[in-house]
Write a structure and sequence with these properties.
Blueprint lengths: L12 H16 L4 H8 L3 E10 L5 E10 L7 E8 L4 H17 L5 E8 L7 H15 L8 E5 L5 H15 L23 H16 L8 E5 L3 H13 L2 E7 L2 E4 L6 H11 L9 E3 L1 H5 L5 E4 L18 E3 L8 H10 L3 E3 L1 H4 L2 H15 L5 H26 L3 H20 L4
Helix pairs in contact: 1-3, 1-14, 2-14, 3-14, 4-5, 6-7, 6-12, 6-13, 12-13, 13-14
Length: 424
């Protein structure tokens, strides 16, 4: 058993959680000591100060980060989140998970992640643009189509990616669409990118329900988080025939055992910005939503929401992890001991976003664009192959599904580092 060592630079609950997951997987595949720390710890990070002139004329200095975990398998890839609780340790953990995710699904990428400590809901559109452009300006020498390719994450969207692409393009003197993904279609974005993560979560949930012989017509779903991932997950599952009985965002949730009209909820949020006071059902807290009786529970918000405190009270049949790291290690143990809940782990479940980001990057580099049907067909084909490889690993070694997914991703990164050797 390897000793858990946590870098003081990234020390946080979520980074320790990611390290414990790594150590368990590294032990399971007998990863050599010479490769362990090289594979585990981030390659490099950048912390930046971002002074922004506010609407009232005052200056606010925001803090931002970019962590590049692995550059051995290709340019690093990962989103940028704008959220008030961003920490360097969280960003490092997310970058680590991105390494295993891209490796698991067979993409020629390493993992990265970025973040800015801010509440985007408290910024005007002009302030948000200034912050986005300033962040990219500070990152110019550390990102690029063949170095590190950012994308949207919590609190960011295609509009922010457009500002960042424009900032980078102005710096290099020509249009460089491939520097970020998740852009508007008009700027080289891919058909299907906006819904890709949620569509992938829903598709895998459907495939696992088929394995469990649960018909979609009898499936009930609770979705925590109604941002891009959660809303698209709910929409796709409702189109498959499932009944969405609960949705939520940071203001709270809505519960309706007869089913929620997801299109109506989407229209409400489009104008009101949050689900607060939506009349599609009765109010419910985010915590209570997790414990509802349902077929599929889809945590699609932030990490560490399913813990050893509530894992014993879950009443779902399947957990589809749309968020990164929503289930703690202690909760994993509780669920494993229960034996009545299947988990689709995050590194597999929400990989649709990075897969279609990869498609967008390829289209940008080749200046040849695909139809939505082509994108979705390729996406579902890659998800099927990744699912099959995880299930084969699970059966072969009698691993949990999370351990099977992590060992596949980690082994491929370690093999790349081993093959490239150590630069003196």
């Amino acid at each position: 058993m390897s000793k858990v060592i946590v870098s003081s630079l990234y020390d946080s609950d979520v980074f320790r959680m990611a390290c414990r997951q790594f150590d368990k997987a590294a032990d399971a595949i007998n990863l050599s000591e010479a490769l362990r720390d090289r594979t585990k710890y981030p390659r490099r990070c950048l912390a930046v100060s971002l002074p922004i002139k506010r609407r009232d004329g005052s200056i606010t200095v925001f803090e931002g980060y970019r962590v590049q975990h692995n550059l051995s398998t290709g340019p690093s890839k990962g989103g940028i989140r704008f959220h008030q609780n961003v920490t360097l340790g969280e960003v490092a953990a997310l970058a680590m998970w991105m390494s295993w995710k891209t490796s698991l699904v067979g993409l020629p990428y390493g993992g990265a992640k970025g973040g800015v400590i801010c509440d985007p809901n408290q910024l005007t559109d002009a302030e948000l643009e200034h912050l986005s452009r300033r962040y990219m300006q500070e990152m110019v020498n550390f990102v690029g189509p063949h170095v590190d390719v950012p994308a949207p994450d919590v609190g960011t969207n295609e509009k922010i990616m457009a500002w960042m692409m424009d900032t980078y393009s102005n710096h290099v003197g020509h249009v460089e669409s491939a520097v970020v993904t998740g852009k508007p279609i008009a700027l080289g974005g891919s058909q299907g990118r906006r819904e890709a993560t949620g569509a992938g979560v829903a598709y895998l949930a459907k495939k696992y329900l088929e394995d469990l012989k649960v018909p979609m017509g009898k499936t009930t779903v609770a979705v925590q988080g109604f941002g891009n991932v959660g809303s698209e997950t709910a929409l796709a599952l409702s189109r498959y025939g499932a009944r969405i009985i609960a949705i939520s965002d940071y203001t709270g949730g809505i519960y309706n055992p007869k089913g929620i009209d997801i299109n109506k909820a989407l229209n409400y949020v489009r104008y009101q910005k949050t689900l607060r006071d939506f009349d599609g059902g009765e109010a419910i807290s985010n915590e209570a939503l997790l414990e509802l009786k349902c077929t599929v529970l889809a945590p699609c918000a932030l990490e560490r929401v399913i813990t050893d405190k509530n894992a014993g009270r879950l009443k779902c049949r399947l957990i589809a992890e749309g968020a990164n790291g929503p289930t703690t290690n202690a909760a994993d143990r509780v669920i494993e001991e229960r034996g009545d809940i299947e988990i689709i782990p995050d590194v597999l479940c929400n990989s649709g976003g990075v897969i279609v980001s990869y498609f967008e990057w390829l289209q940008n580099l080749s200046n040849y664009y695909w139809t939505r049907d082509e994108v979705m067909e390729k996406l579902f084909g890659m998800l099927d192959r990744a699912k099959d490889s995880v299930e084969a690993q699970k059966r072969k070694f009698k691993f949990s599904r999370r351990l099977a997914a992590l060992t596949l991703g980690i082994q491929r990164v370690a093999d790349a580092k081993q093959s490239r050797g150590l630069f003196p």
